Amino acid sequence: MSAPGVNLKLNGDRLWDALMEMAKVGPGIAGGNNRQTLTDADAQGRELFKTWCQSSGCSMGLDQMGNMFARREGTDKNALPVYVGSHLDTQPTGGKYDGVLGVLGGLEIIRTLNDLSIKTKHPIVVTNFTNEEGTRYAPSMLASGVFAGIYKQDWAHKRVDSEGIKFGDELERIGWSGDEVTGERKMHAFFELHIEQGPILETEGVDIGVVTHGQGLSWTQVTITGRDSHTGSTPMPMRRNAGLGMARVLELVEEIALSHSPHAVGAAGHIDVYPNSRNVIPGKVIFTVDFRSPKLDVILDMEKKLKEGAKEICDKMGLTVELEQLGGFDPVTFDPKCVEAVRSAAERLGHSHMDLISGAGHDACWINKVAPTAMVMCPCVDGLSHNEAEEITKDWAAAGANVLLHAVLETAEIVD
Asked: Which of 20, 76, 111, 147 could join 183 via S-S bond, C-beta 3.0 to 4.6 A?
């Protein structure tokens, strides 16, 4: 198949305008976004995306997990589609680009092909996956996980948020539950554009990250139970302080991750303390430990050390501890042919590039299980993400989207 010409580029200004327009939906309190999955804001963002896609001549598919598929037809009706996309949901204090750049970069590909009357052999489908972030409904990448057969749909629909509201019920409430069986679609390939969410590209002054691998991830929910009692009248030797137990386990998490440095990481980002009163010693805590590494044996070792160490700590303190695996995935190796399409696109367009291992989870990590997959990354300021101060430049967005365009077209095959 022939590569697109070097002069073929998309409209970077139009892409940026779309990013800014989507950022108006579900605004945060500090310049970013709070468009959590299956909220009214999520529904509004979906509707805007659907409107843009339909005005670009795409048909819109919707499956039973709420995944959206905007399709531009190819010339060969028997050719499997090339998929491109990411997610529109955000963290509670999320930025304007995480996930959104990948979805709207895909839309800009469609708009550019329409502008230039370019036809492709393979259809091109732009995808918005539901609940990539996993903040409201654990685990992350839930809907792409169902699509790839990692999770059962019934199990996913029964996941509850902090208020006990089921995923399936909220999907119905906001009107974005489709009839299409999740995962029945077949893909020729899948490409995802994303901000790096790390500092490497900006620090090195490199335009494009060619993602060759993804770190493995392990989420373990830890529940420590003691006894809540009065902070003023309970003697120190008689306390069963679940909060103190958590503090010691978190120190253990730090030690475990450091023992596998420099490529392993670990922390707890979701913590609930009960009864969470100023003058009551915590009787129960629930927190999630996030371990990541590009090596599976390291992840398994960190899980083992956490299980053994947490039990030892809690036994000594008269506390009980329960560990539950909430989610995770093995380290990912992306498809060499798709990765090479990204690398050659960057070279063809004259962009500096380097290979990267993604430190974050992405829908591409699950889709890689069922289709040839690769990722493109662009820098973000100070590597900051999952924060309302998340920022990229218009030039970075355009460069990443142009590499995406060329990789997709090389794979979808331009028809002369």
From this structure: 147
